[in-house]
């Protein structure tokens, strides 16, 4: 079995038995020879994922050992062994700004992104295709002519939320959709938190538009800090609930976005 095929098989197997992922991550961190682990995939295990393999191999995917896999994504805890994708895989190698925020984001987020993105130099905008700030970021990027990456928490053949069917289709045509989850995987709550680490890992910096003090967006910002990414935040009015999280980030040292120069001066490319 080729190493690339082995990683796909192992990746699918860990979705059935997550404990398998721990042993492989330790080997990766120790820079061990991954081929030594192939004997652990006995015939019974391979047979158990054979139906998933048949489906997965019909989709485009990039593995941890492929050249197209961005080196910066290998830096995060439990990097995805496989990313299934639809669209332009080359976007994984470009300067990327992650944009996240509340599902209840207001017109303030939409208007700011619509004004900001056309003033940015060529870069890719990554977000999670969720309702609110995520979809605003994707829409603003497409309008501004910036490529966009949607990191989703379900199989790339699934659409969530359903109202984003056309947006997801458009991104898959002119941008990039990626997911660590095999085709056919429906969204579950825990997958959205896991998805956030990939947004932070792919990005060279993460901007939070609007967020409450307890928000999944702040989890993404925390991942970004852990990965030594720049964190940006939009300032908001005193007493504004959706500004409490972003104002707290600014108080903690996040770069306050007052215009395109804030992003341009603090966002730097590395592989």
From TrEMBL:
<comment type="similarity">
    <text>Belongs to the DprA/Smf family.</text>
</comment>
<feature type="domain" description="Smf/DprA SLOG">
    <location>
        <begin position="61"/>
        <end position="267"/>
    </location>
</feature>
<dbReference type="Pfam" id="PF02481">
    <property type="entry name" value="DNA_processg_A"/>
</dbReference>
<dbReference type="InterPro" id="IPR057666">
    <property type="entry name" value="DrpA_SLOG"/>
</dbReference>
<protein>
    <submittedName>
        <fullName>DNA-processing protein DprA</fullName>
    </submittedName>
</protein>
<dbReference type="InterPro" id="IPR003488">
    <property type="entry name" value="DprA"/>
</dbReference>
């Amino acid at each position: 079995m080729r190493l690339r095929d082995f990683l796909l098989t192992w990746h699918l197997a860990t979705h059935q038995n997550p404990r398998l992922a721990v042993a492989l991550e330790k080997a990766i961190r120790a820079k061990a020879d991954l081929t030594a682990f192939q004997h652990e995939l006995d015939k019974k295990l391979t047979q158990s994922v054979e139906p998933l393999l048949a489906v997965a191999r019909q989709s485009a995917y990039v593995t941890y050992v492929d050249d197209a896999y961005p080196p910066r994504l290998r830096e995060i805890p439990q990097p995805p062994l496989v990313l299934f994708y639809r669209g332009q895989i080359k976007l994984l190698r470009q300067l990327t700004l992650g944009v996240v925020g509340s599902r209840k984001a207001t017109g303030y987020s939409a208007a700011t992104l619509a004004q900001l993105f056309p003033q940015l130099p060529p870069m890719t905008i990554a977000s999670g295709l969720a309702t609110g700030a995520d979809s605003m970021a994707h829409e603003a990027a497409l309008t501004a002519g910036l490529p966009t990456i949607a990191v989703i928490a379900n199989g790339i053949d699934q659409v969530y939320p359903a109202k984003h069917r056309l947006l997801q289709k458009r991104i898959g045509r002119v941008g990039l959709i990626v997911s660590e989850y095999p085709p056919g995987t429906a969204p579950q709550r825990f997958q959205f938190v896991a998805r956030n680490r990939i947004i932070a890992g792919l990005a060279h910096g993460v901007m939070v538009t609007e967020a409450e003090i307890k928000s999944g967006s702040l989890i993404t910002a925390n991942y970004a800090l852990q990965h030594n990414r720049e964190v940006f935040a939009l300032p908001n009015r005193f007493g504004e609930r959706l500004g409490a999280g972003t104002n707290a980030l600014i108080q903690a040292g996040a770069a306050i976005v007052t215009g395109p120069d804030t992003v341009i001066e603090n966002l730097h490319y590395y592989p």
